[in-house]
Amino acid sequence: MENEKEWKRYEDIINLPHHVSPHRPRMSITDRAAQFSPFAALTGFEDALMETDRRTDARVELEEDAKNALDERLRMLQEHIADHPKVSVTYFRPDGKKKGGLYVTVSGQVKRIDTYKKRVIMLDGTAIAVCEIMKIEGEFFSF
Fold it and tell me: Quick check: 91 and 128 in contact, CB under 8 A?
């Protein structure tokens, strides 16, 4: 009974043909669906949460003995730089977005030590700031 009342209210227009504009092209189904897609009011919020949750390591300050041993290894590398010694270097890479960073280990041959910019340059082009180096290892070192 309720349904019949509803039909009667629209009886004059219910069977009219669907209007098609002669001036505007028909909208694609994809574009039409996009009108009804959910609105993302907090665009970037999820990325911000993930960035906040991302862990970084704190920089460890070397003790004086470790600094001296590292200086000695760098001196030895400089003396034998023509041989392009193969080493593994562990260093701290500061994070560009937040406090802390990441400890990274790279292996390869040393191309040169840039004493002006205080960097170790590897044969593959990797440049490592001397002040960020934690450890240098390799068969080259006997101690």
Answer: yes
Together in a domain, 28 and 69: no
Question: Which pLDDT value is given to residue 143?
Answer: 46
Total domains in the chain come to: 2
- Residue 143 belongs to a domain: no
Tally Cβ neighbours within 10 Å of residue 92.
20
- What six digits make up the tokens of 38? 């959910």
Pick the range with the lowest mean pLDDT from 8-12, 62-66, 79-83: 8-12
Looking at 10-133, list the stretches that DSSP marks H as alpha helix, in order from N- to C-terminal side. 29-35, 45-53, 64-79
Could you give the CA distance from residue 77 to residue 86 in angstroms, rounded to a whole number?
10
Q: Counting Cβ atoms within 10 Å, is residue 136 exposed (0-12), middle (13-18) or buried (19+)? A: buried
Assess contact for 46 and 40: CB atoms under 8 A: no
- Tell me how crowded residue 11 is: count the other CB atoms within 10 A of its CB: 8
Q: Is 128 helix (H, G, I), strand (E, B) or coil?
A: strand
